[in-house]
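User: Design a sequence. Structure:
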């Protein structure tokens, strides 16, 4: 008999004021970007999915655990349901100063090829290691990085203009 294992509240992506993450939390993160590495890993995935949704893409976010290494799949808005994803996204939120190693990059590239996606994207509070970057260039991996600087731009674009408090329903 299978047992029901509920998703911990900290991993829930239910949102009253957003698709995947609450607007009030986005505003908080915009004002407290130094805390980005401390948020729950699932909320970090939700933040990434929220950004792509607001940019007009179709987004499918994985279950979080046991997702096979792909956190988010992104399609152009007009894509057919049978089309391969445009981008496969791997999110890596680190509390400490760690870098994304070659193993993560190679695994993402293998998934990009397997799913016939156009590219891969690693969204991280850190960076891709120099060795992994060299592999991407030498082997022609179409994998990009969205680091803290890029995430900061995302937060700026998604924040509530004005006092930073979301008042609508």
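Assistant: Done.
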């Amino acid at each position: 008999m299978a047992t029901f294992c509920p998703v911990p509240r900290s991993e829930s992506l239910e949102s009253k004021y957003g698709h995947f993450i609450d607007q009030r939390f986005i505003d908080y993160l915009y004002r407290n970007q130094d805390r980005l590495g401390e948020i729950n890993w699932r909320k970090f995935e939700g933040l990434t999915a929220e950004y792509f949704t607001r940019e007009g893409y179709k987004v499918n976010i994985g279950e979080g655990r046991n997702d096979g290494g792909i956190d988010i799949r992104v399609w152009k808005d007009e894509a057919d349901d049978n089309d391969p994803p445009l981008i496969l996204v791997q999110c890596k939120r680190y509390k400490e100063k760690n870098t994304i190693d070659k193993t993560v990059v190679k695994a993402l590239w293998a998934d990009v090829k397997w799913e016939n996606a156009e590219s891969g994207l690693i969204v991280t509070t850190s960076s891709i290691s120099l060795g992994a970057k060299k592999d991407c260039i030498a082997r022609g991996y179409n994998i990009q990085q969205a680091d803290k600087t890029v995430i900061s731009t995302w937060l700026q674009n998604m924040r509530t203009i004005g006092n930073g408090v979301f008042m609508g329903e």
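The longest strand covers residues 87-92. The longest helix spans residues 41-54.
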